Amino acid sequence: MTSTPTRTAEFRPSGTEVPTASGARTLGTLGRRAAAALSFRTIGAVYVWLLIIVLFSVWAPDTFPTVTTVKQVLNGNAVAGLVALSVVLPLTARVFDLSVAYTMSLTSVLTAHFLVSTGLGPTAAIALAMTAALVVGVVNGVVVVVLRVDSFIATLATGALIQSLITMVTDDSSITGVQLLAKPFADIAQLDVGGITLPVLYLLLAATAIWFLLEHTATGRRLYATGFNTDAARLQGVRTNRLRFLTLVTSALLAGFAGVVFASSVGSGSPSAGTPYLLSAYAAAFVGATQLRAGRFNAWGTVIAVLLLGTGITGLGLATSAQWAASLFTGSVLIVALVLTGGRITLPAVLRRHKAPVSAETGDVSAPDKEFS
Amino acid sequence: MHAETPLGSAGTQETDRPVLRVSGLSKRFGATQALQDVDLDIAHGEIHALIGPNGSGKSTLIKILAGYHHAAPGAAAELDGEPFGLGQVTGSRHDRLRFVHQELGLVGELSATDNLALSRGFARTALGNIRWPEMERRTTALVERFGLGIDVRRPLSTATPVQRAVVAIAAALQGWEGRRGVLVLDEPTAVLPPGEVARLFDIVREIRDSGASVLYVSHRMDEIFALADRVTVIRGGRRIATRRVDELTPRSLAELMAGEETETEHRPRPVSDGAEAVLEVRGLSAGPLHGVDFTLARGERLGITGLVGSGHEVVPYAVCGAYGGPVRGQVRVPERSPRWVDAKDAGRLGIPLVPADRAGEGVIGDFSVGENLTLPLLDRLRARAGRLHRRHESSLAEEWIRRVGVRAAGRGARITTLSGGNQQKVVVARCLAQQPPVLVLCEPTAGVDIATRLQLYDLIERQADEGMGVIVSSSDTEDLLALCTRVLVVRDGRIVREISGRDITEPALVHAMEGTE
């Protein structure tokens, strides 16, 4: 599923309307397209992000607008970004994977356990931990797709099972050891180029892969179709069950990878490594769904949301010593963004009425947007 | 509460005055003039039909009466001589205007008693707990006048469609107490099988006879002739005419609706014998269906019909491998494979289906017109590295939008901004774009206006003439009469009658379905 991307730098937010190189286009269309791509509705979070950067630069002029802060935001949120990306694919197919936080803890403690207690090399330790993540994904897929348990509750249940496994391995205390701080393993998360660590690169690669999959492949289109209307998609030959199963496998693998990176970056295997990332992952995915491809879960929107939330929390940490500010910020951003998505459903309807004279016909039958205000 | 006012006790002067009078009604949505200066008056104790194609403005008219939309200034409305505002306050409506919307607005998991209480409240004791015996007595009193033996305690999802319609009507009529007023029924037969339509008509007449007036919104001319006293035709947001039904013929009404002479009858041409088979089915069983065999010839338009529950509605899903339960039997599509395929694997044959429930199974509401069109064709649009060929995709979408004449703001428009008829064209187009040997349609014209209906008939006929085999499963005899060269009638899960060519007539179909031959 997360096939290796073939192109990296072709990020195009306008989605379906990819201009062709050969097609002659007037400046007018390009201008309109650019305006649409830069409009507040498309990338509102970017403007909010710029606003809070300005805000914190004024509030904490000595500490916030520095290169250190930039590095801190990027390096400090790469793992959170990976976890957030891991839930994007299931969400496009309308599957909730709440077990990602536990999967992440599991791989972090398993990697540490194999390195410290069994003396395996890093490659073998990581391979075994990732195999465990794969098993988790398959179990999730079996419970959700084959046994038809609602994904929300099913992954909560498998999360509890994973937690019991973690406790079995760790006795509820972190696994530490010199092997975790030694060179090849520590480099996974700590090697840096000009202060930017490798996890930032992993984040970019994962986002690019997911973006390519969702925007540019048949599989991506079918995932969205599955999420929007499973019955209709199945009747059109989309193998919805297989896709739902595979999204759960990819989410477990990506969350598992985040756990390995986490173990490398902190130099220990913590039994509760993933717990704080669950809420922020879903917050970022849902805020991300309001960006770029409004109404669709997407990779770059999620990355923007992670950076927005990360910048806010970092800034609050520098500007005030109030411990409660970070959660307040995350909660507020999430509510505001979701209210805006809710509002989005009526907003385009208003615009449509100006553009499309046929819209009066929608009054008939049971169109969902029949409520003109 | 008001005393009962039985029919006839009202004075002559009162009966002459219209119960509802609306005049100068206009409404604009952006650039679209949905209604222009429409007048409507409904007499006491009449069934007044409102007919017009999709997009004609009849839904807007109903929604203004129901208080969902505001009317443009200049409109006036009075009920029994008292003026009232037209939707100036959202959600406000006149208490003597009652509505039953097409979707009925019922909660299937709840009983009739609960559903009635949702709109009118629960009877409670001093402690606040619900007095169930009283609630059930009240509900029984309201629904039993219509007969049908509705169990007021069972969830409505277990009731028949006509029972649900009756519960919706009973819910709308709560607290009415026989006063003068108007009950608005918005296409109530859309969800009813033909056998139950007559029962609903009896109920509508009974409501009229008990002193209420009925505004009956419909797509269907035959219903108007069967039921209505007068009819108002609207088209393009204007009132075209209001006539007594007994002064009209089906042809003259069709002319009023279409604005020009329309060919109301399609003439199916029988296929010449000996045409090769494009689909063979044997021993097909699924749900209510017990062992059905048939063969579809090249260029044939085969109708499959029956009463709801007879099993005919299962045939399309089973043939396409899309039935959600256990299926037995075998299917063969010579063009795909010379071998017989087990019906449970029939999905592999790739026969496209136009499903019955357009919103639930047909379109993907959050997708654009183009994305809906190309969803089953994505495999053909692959470029390097599994990438979707966007340019091919858009030209494919544009081509089919043009070929089937979809009216949309463009391929990028969200599918839900289209009228029901245009959405159906998209659904049919994406099936045709697969260039299948067989096309299967289930209730293809449900909720589709007359003009689009004729276009769909033409489209299907053209495809058949080019050699495609077409199966039309429909409980709408109009589809069968207009479209089919041969009709199989299913009763109790078996094919009981085969009717071909000129023998396909309304009475023949109805008798075969009902088993009254």
UniProtKB/TrEMBL annotation, chain A:
Any GO molecular function: transmembrane transporter activity
Transmembrane spans: 42-61, 73-93, 100-120, 126-147, 152-169, 189-214, 243-263, 275-292, 299-318, 324-347
Pfam families: BPD_transp_2
Keyword tRNA-binding carried by entry: no
Presence of keyword Cell membrane: yes
Keywords associated with the record: Cell inner membrane, Cell membrane, Membrane, Transmembrane, Transmembrane helix, Transport
Compartments where located: Cell membrane
Superkingdom in the source lineage: Bacteria
Bilayer disposition of the protein: Multi-pass membrane protein
GO CC, alphabetical: plasma membrane
Protein known as: ABC transporter permease
Species of the source: Streptomyces canus
